[in-house]
Design brief:
- By secondary structure, this protein is an alpha/beta fold.
- It is built from 18 helices and 19 strands.
- The strands form four sheets. An eight-stranded mixed beta sheet has the order 5-4-3-6-9-10-11-12, sandwiched between helices.
- Strand 13, helix 14 and strand 14 form a beta-alpha-beta unit.
- Helix 5 runs parallel beside helix 6, helix 10 packs across helix 12 and helix 12 runs antiparallel to helix 13.
- The two termini are 41 Å apart.
- Bound molecules: uridine-5'-diphosphate-glucuronic acid (UGA).
- Uridine-5'-diphosphate-glucuronic acid (UGA) binds next to helix 10 and helix 12.
């Protein structure tokens, strides 16, 4: 068992913790564990990322993370290094937050985990609790264990392995870390569970200075500390993410049915969600799920099931339904604009969801790809995700002001549920656009409001609002379209 040291700052005990991998999960974990009182060393192979962190920067957009890092730095509880040996030797507990990859054939590539096991086995000079935390497929814990024990030779008894799946969401990760629904640990021996309980004790017992609510945290049920074996913990993670993805696809098929029979999916899902057995969350219809987690987790769970002879057909269907959302969106656009060649289309929102700059598997990127394939001219806007998108689609014009993206556009497609897009002045936008046409991929606006602004408006599972005006905007001649190369990008660089 690890020995906690008294911590004068919080009247609590602290441990020396290392975090390997400074991606979203690793960085939030490291910063929040430091804020919870532990002494944390974070490492990553990306030298530019570590340089930025060392200089006081934050390489990802995540609300509250900057403030948490600032106070952890000030209290000298967190440091960053590109040297993995330094991190491995510093931590009594090592959180592994490196991603696993999925190969073209759907199989999981464990080479990053294997490499890390080799490094930890070679460099450790004292006993370590090695905790697998990143979004991983089942078997990652076993692979880590196999690697550590193979490479450690006579020092194998230095290592204990545990799994501690993460349930935080991008955009609310800091809040989710401090106010979790549950803390799940998969262990091989009781001592590992006891150590993990010690690591999370201030959160479990609510003895931390909350960086979000400043002494005024909402009252929530007691956090359950769930202890299972490693494979069950990994399965719980897969099953939870996949179930939520399933729920979203269910709502999306429901939306298709609503459109056919003239019902409103928002009213239907709202009433469904009042049943606590169903719950209101993750029933929002629209462009479907993206991000690094759901698409990968669903695919990995299908593959894992197949490897043990189970055909996870409903999950395959959820994945197919999700991919079809892009077709549904483009079909809606084509209904109003049959030929997309040379049409100017504003794409509002690039991130896979609000409050993040993450564009991995973002539905917006698929929409852009399809629009470009059809010869449309894309004008995009997003509060945080433009630099990352620009690297993938340099031919798109980018505008930090969404109204500029809509200037002269023949249509606008809302792809991300940013608050900014819920409060747009559509009357003003209508004066700028060549045609008042909106495809709302996140059902952010009401038909009434769009009708009041005289827009032709398509959403998902809620019918269509026709424009009362002639197709072309008679009010203002659209401004000339700039060359994409001259596009203004004022969002902050990554
Ligand atoms: C998800 C899970 O919610 C977390 O619990 C988990 O820890 C994380 O994956 C992970 O495995 O690391 P995240 O991907 O950050 O978190 O975002 P979500 O809020 O779950 O949204 C995922 C996608 O589903 C987004 O594209 C979102 O727009 C979409 N979504 C969500 C819908 O289309 N409809 C909904 O009703 C809810």
């Amino acid at each position: 068992m690890l020995a906690c040291r008294p911590n004068s700052g919080l009247g609590d005990n602290y441990l020396r913790v290392s975090v390997i991998g400074c991606g979203h999960v690793g960085l939030v974990t490291g910063a929040c564990l430091a804020a919870a009182g532990h002494q944390v060393v974070c490492t990553d192979t990306d030298a530019a990322r570590i340089a930025m962190l060392t200089a006081g920067g934050v390489p990802v957009y995540e609300p509250h993370l900057g403030a948490v890092l600032r106070s952890a730095r000030k209290a000298r509880r967190v440091s960053f290094t590109t040297n993995p040996t330094e991190a491995i030797r510093a931590g009594e507990a090592i959180f592994v937050c490196v991603g696993t990859l999925t190969r073209e054939n759907g199989e999981t590539d464990f080479s990053a985990i294997d490499h890390l096991a080799l490094q930890i086995a070679q460099e450790a000079r004292s006993p370590k609790l090695v905790i697998e935390k990143s979004t991983v497929p089942t078997r990652a814990g076993a692979e880590l264990r196999r690697g550590l024990f193979t490479y450690a030779n006579s020092r194998a008894n230095y290592f204990r392995v545990a799994s501690n799946p993460e349930f935080m969401r991008e955009g609310t990760a800091v809040s989710d870390f401090f106010h979790p629904d549950r803390i799940l640990v998969g262990v091989e021996e009781q001592s590992a569970a006891t150590d993990l309980h010690a690591i999370y004790s201030s959160i479990l017992e609510r003895r931390f200075a909350c960086p979000i609510h400043a002494g005024n945290c909402p009252s929530t049920p007691e956090v359950e500390f769930v202890v299972t074996d490693i494979k069950e913990a990994e399965l719980i993670k897969h099953a939870s993410d996949s179930f939520l993805a399933l729920k979203i696809s269910y709502a999306n098929v429901l939306a298709d049915i609503c459109e056919k029979i003239g019902a409103d999916v928002d009213r239907v899902t709202r009433a469904m969600g009042l049943d606590p057995r169903i719950g209101a969350q993750f029933l929002k219809a629209g462009l479907g799920f993206g991000g690094f987690c759901f698409p990968n987790d669903v695919q990995a769970f299908i593959e894992l099931s197949a490897s043990v002879g189970i055909d996870f057909a409903i999950l395959k269907a959820a994945e197919r339904v999700n991919k079809e959302r892009i077709d549904v969106c483009i079909d809606k656009l084509r209904r109003a604009l049959p030929a997309l060649k040379n049409k100017r289309v504003a794409v509002l929102g690039l991130a896979f969801k609000a409050d993040t700059d993450d564009v991995r598997f973002a539905p917006a990127l698929e929409v852009i790809k399809r629009l470009l394939e059809e010869g449309a001219k894309v004008r995009a806007s997003d509060p945080e995700a433009m630099p990352r998108t620009k690297a993938k689609f340099p031919q798109v014009s980018y505008y930090s002001d969404p109204y500029e993206a809509m200037r002269g556009a023949d249509a606008a497609i809302i792809c991300t549920d940013w608050d900014l897009f819920k409060t747009l002045d559509w009357k003003h936008a209508g004066k700028l656009m060549a045609r008042k046409l909106v495809i709302d991929g996140r059902n952010l606006n009401s038909h009434q409001a769009m009708q009041d602004s005289d827009f032709e408006y398509y959403s998902f599972g809620r019918g269509t609002t026709a424009s009362r005006s002639p197709v072309e905007n008679p009010v203002e001649t659209p401004a000339p379209i700039e060359d994409p190369c001259d596009a203004v990008v004022t969002a902050k660089a990554i």
